[in-house]
Amino acid sequence: MLKHLFKLIWNKKKQNSLLIVEILLSFMVMFAVFAFAVNSYQNYVKPIGIKYEHVWVINYNNTLKTQNSDSLTMFYEGLLRNIKAMPQVVDAGFSSTNVPFSSAHMSGGITVNGKRITYVNQFNVDDNYLNTLGATMLEGRWYNKQDGISKEKVTVINNTLKEKAFGKGSAVGKYFNDYDNKFKIKVIGVVNDIKFDGDYQTVGLSQYNRFDTSAYHWLQRILVKVQPNADAAFESRLYKFMANQMKNSNIEIEHLPNKLVAYNKFTLVPLIILSIVAAFLIINVALGIFGVLWYNINKRRGEIGLRRAIGASGSSVSSQLVSEALILATFSLIIGTFFAVQFPLLNVFDLSAGVYLTAIGFALIFIYFIVLVCSLYPGKQAAAIYPAVALHEE
Amino acid sequence: MISLQNIEKVYRTTNIETLALNNISLDIAKGEFLSVMGPSGCGKSTLLNIMGLLDAPSRGQIKISDQTTDNLNDKQLAKFRNQKLGFIFQSYHLINDLQVLDNVELPLLYRDTTAKERRQLAAEALEKVGLSNRMKHFPTQLSGGQRQRVAIARAIVGRPEIILADEPTGNLDSAMGNEIMEILLQLNQNDGTTIVMVTHDEHMAQKTHRLVRLFDGSQVL
Ligand SMILES: Nc1ncnc2c1ncn2[C@@H]1O[C@H](COP(=O)(O)OP(=O)(O)OP(=O)(O)O)[C@@H](O)[C@H]1O
Ligand SMILES: [Mg+2]
User: Fold this and answer.
1) Which structural domain range is residue B157 located in?
2) Which of A32, A312, A372, B205 has the most CB atoms in a 10 Å sphere around its CB?
3) What are the pLDDT digits (tens) for A1-41?
């Protein structure tokens, strides 16, 4: 019977091609939606990697008249000392503008054994950064004062970069080169992955570099870890303190939890848009399948009557029509799966193969489900056709 | 072979009630070739549908091969039709998207058969109707007479004991009609198939064993 239905569909491939293309298209869209969703979910269940609940970000811009590096250093070191001395402050440190949950990104590359690794996020940080954010070292150590005077170039990387560069083993004490392959950099520590881009985004490759004092010319962020009881009154005191210290500077204080919420919303927008597009397409396809089957039944009343006359029961007629729809879907889904598996094979978006395969699985189930649901009712209608009546029309 | 007892068929539509068959009793012996005649609308097709278990009578009883049929469910009826009956229609009812051979195989699909058996039985049936050289054609590539021969092959492929033919020559010119009639007579004589045929053609009817005439749902001969 299956072979018979294949033949029937194959011989009608022209009439069926539109539906095949439509199902194929919706499979691809659903594949994209599910890949996006599965990836977002996988990211979501991973720990965020920092204790951000009581971390504030002070935005400022350097408006100091002096261009003298020593006096700049003295000023900013004094500023930080004063902030740290406040009783509500647990710890504080300078950072480049790409603080957690901000849209600022700085990207660079490194060379490992002659092979370039690109899209490495670059963070310029100080000795207090780790403790202020509450991240953890997986191995090795974070920066300290000694690193300021040592001759050797050292760096701290995140776990993702470690695995990409050195695999599963230990990385501390190992070396890689800068992007242009000119000088050696020694890894002194590996820090846990931090989801800088919010709950739903993939953790990228990250490298944390201890800035030297010349960076005070352009640094614009101070991260402040406060006590849980730090309130709005303290925030305004902190604001006033900053405004007093740095006349003419634009001071703004943000809270990481708020930034996270805002950033999450921002990253979910594409998923929402994609889902809306997908929903419209699916409705369209569902109506298409429904309509085509409905139309088929009316066009094929004679055939249905004949099949009943020569030995088909009502239920076998309806299961035939449902099977035809599923076979048609299978044609589309085979083609669709062929395209979909190219994504992990060619590693198009740097998502793991598992994400793509799960998405393919979900999309297959989803499309089959839609087709099944849309064909059940027309199938039932077909079973209700009176053969005696259908055979004498025409 | 077929026994009808006091068959009555009433069609009810919203405002009209049609008595399509009025108290018909009929016994058809095994191996008999019966023709049914009567003016249009007198209930010939209705009678054939009821014999073919495609439609249930409003009253009365049908026995086929000494088996009562009024207590069979949809599945059992389908199986019964598949094994005991072959149908031929005025408008052939071939599936245009299937080749001739696949059309002929159709009844066997609803039975336990292997693809090879189906192929062989269908080829034999097509040979009987003289269409061995058209197996790979599609119905639209055939003449009316050839199409009806395909339909006959389909009706006989499952070796049914009974063939029910509703105006099998109605759409054909007399030469082609005679050809079809010849095939039916052969089936009746050589294989002992019981045949009930509705026709408008006196000549055709004369070639059969017995003639039944209907008028307004009643048997008049
Ligand atoms: N499904 C139906 N619903 C209502 N009335 C019906 C139905 N089928 C047949 N009839 C009526 O029953 C009567 C007998 O119809 P039937 O088709 O048996 O006639 P027939 O003798 O085969 O005619 P023809 O020679 O034109 O084929 C007609 O009056 C017809 O209108
Ligand atoms: Mg009729």
Assistant:
1) 33-57+74-219
2) A312
3) 888 998 888 888 888 888 888 889 889 988 988 998 898 89
